Amino acid sequence: MTVYILQRSLQSIVVLFIMSLIVFCGVNLIGDPVYMMISPESEPAEIERTIKEFGFDKPVLEQYWYFLKNVISGDFGRSFVQGIPALPMILERFPATIELAIFSLFISLLFALPLGIYAGLYPERKASRIIMSGSILGFSMPTFWVGIMLIMLFAVKLDWLPSTGRGQLGTFLGIESSLFTLDGLLHILLPAINLALFKLSSVLRLTRAGTREVILQDYIKFAKAKGLPQSRVIGVHLLKNILIPVVTVIGLEFGSLVAFSTVTETVFAWPGAGKLIIDSMYNLDRPVIVAYLIIIVAFFVFLNLIVDILYSFLDPRVRIKGSSE
Amino acid sequence: MNNQTKYELLSKVWSEFSENKVAVIALIFFGIILFVAIFAPLISPTDPYDLATVTIMNSRLPPMEEDFSGNVYWLGTDGAGRDMLSAIFYGLRISLSVGVLSGLFALMVGAFFGISAAYFGGRYETLVMRIVDIQLSFPSILVALIILAAFGKGVEKTIFALVLVQWAYYARTARASALVESRKEYVDAARCLSLGNLRIMISHILPNCIPPLIVVGTLQTAHAISLEATLSFLGLGLPQTEPSLGLLIGNGFEYVHTGDYWISIFPGVALLITIVSINLVGDQLRDMFNPRLKK
């Protein structure tokens, strides 16, 4: 077990290292960053000075080495555009992204679980077929376009909900969030629905498949034969067993919600980390791009590590196979 | 295989496929889309990128509106006065070519690594499959963002990003079926004839791995088209000179708050029909090739 965890941790570090090298070298090979900071008409001496100051005259690998040393001490460099350190700039934006992702996850589970169980219990009913066709439509629809349609319908045509920004923030238990004020809730509703639709279909399909499998098990038949009411059979015996795969997937789905929120945040002008990376890519703000990508890759590597370790606790076959390799 | 058996096989596949009426309708829709994409310059009412005919005077005309010279714009015009219907026809052409091209490249790369991993086994296989696993643990959009952040936007770069996003799926599928195939007797027989490894992989194992690869191919192509549209919408994928459906929607996004709905709705509908029809066809193919669902 310990061997497996160590192996997986080592692999995570290697992946993170390789990714940081790719990101850093790639990003620093395009364009000329010098003219991002000073005007091209500056004195040659000043251009020279800037190049020296930022170390652009050194080979990329040497620059990478300095970069790595700084990163380990938490310094990702300063944003070319805003002149402030990149790391706090990104971390400051993360709460908005996490808040959006959590609320979306909540919405998608709220709808996906009941609909999925229903479609699994009564696969022949017309409503179930509509749910299943709807889910194909759900994962076929490009997120950004659905977002535009939501804005058009609810913000422009009906004028019910706001379509940009986070609205008023409330503070509860020291956490600042849009979820604690009515205005904030109204603001988060459209982006969260938009992001949720994307996950809703896949969780729904998974729940349905799980339900159809579990419903045939002996313990369900036994619970029914015992004369337990349907609500208890479904609410306890069935739900507990279909939740196992669903919970595992949720860990990974949460990560992909954070990644896909770049799209939703851009459409709804949601001031999260995803919008920041897109804006930075327009402006070629390299330190921010590199910092964001490395943080998000680290986030994923860590998330996967946790899921894998949890999995190996639940399923001994994984760790035996892992350590024999 | 002679022509007779080829014909029989095709008709058998078709009769199985046509059991699902929805899939048949989806296939017809896809056929129409393919036709439109291929013949866009011939069937478009106007050439939307001909600067001689497009004038800003006609900008943002609602659908069915006429301009001063009596031309009817069925789906209206965009901010620069281009006919939306023609722009969508041309956009479909670009979106489909990028999607299909990236799918084909990814298929080649993925099938090569997948089959060779299964064929040679050992450390090489472990390494390839580890890379596949690691890559699949990242969401597709993140992989694409990293590539485009590193190399910048452009047609080849977008295709490269899409290939990199997709190859792992093909590799996994190809390896799974090549693993089964390479244990069969015909492969042993080919080895006994001392045929080259490359020849055994390409002309003996590969043809038997095609069905599952076709299934993955259809679903992945739909995914690639959607991802390209997303990236182009964000302004990171294709350049403005290659206006795919995603870019058209992105251009229409500017006018959302003024209520000029048609500029972003119609390209989106075209995109949606394309993706849904490919997905439905792919779904039916998957059911057909899935041995567990065989009657």
Task: Please report the total strand number of chain B as a whole number.
Answer: 2
Envelope shape of chain A: globular
Report the uncertain regions of chain B: none
- Could you give the order of the helices and strands of chain A? HHHHHHHEEHHHHHH
Average of per-residue pLDDT values of chain B = 85
What's the count of strands of chain A? 2
**How is the biggest beta sheet of chain A arranged?**
2 strands, antiparallel
Helix count, DSSP H or I runs of 4 or more residues of chain B:
11
Compute the separation of the termini of chain A in Å. Answer: 14 Å
* Rg over C-alpha atoms of chain A, rounded to the nearest angstrom: 24 Å
Descriptive report:
The complex is a heterodimer of chains A (325) and B (295). Chain A is mainly alpha-helical. Chain A is globular. Helices cover 77% and strands 2% of the residues of chain A. Chain A has a two-stranded antiparallel ribbon. In chain A, helix 5 (86-121) crosses helix 12 and helix 9 (218-225) packs across helix 10 (230-267). By secondary structure, chain B is mostly helical. Chain B has eleven helices and two strands; from the N terminus they run αααββαααααααα. Chain B has helices spanning 3-17, 21-38, 40-43, 84-120, 122-136, 140-151, 155-181, 185-192, 197-233, 245-253, 262-289; strands at 65-66, 72-73. Chain B has a two-stranded antiparallel ribbon with strand order 1-2. In chain B, helix 2 (21-38) packs across helix 11 (262-289). Chain B starts with a helix and ends in a 6-residue tail after the last helix. Chains A and B meet through helix 1, helix 6, helix 7, helix 10 and helix 11 of A and helix 5, helix 6, helix 9, helix 10 and helix 11 of B.
Q: What brief labels describe this structure?
A:
heterodimer; A: 325 residues; two-stranded antiparallel sheet; globular; B: 295 residues; mainly alpha; 11 helices; elongated
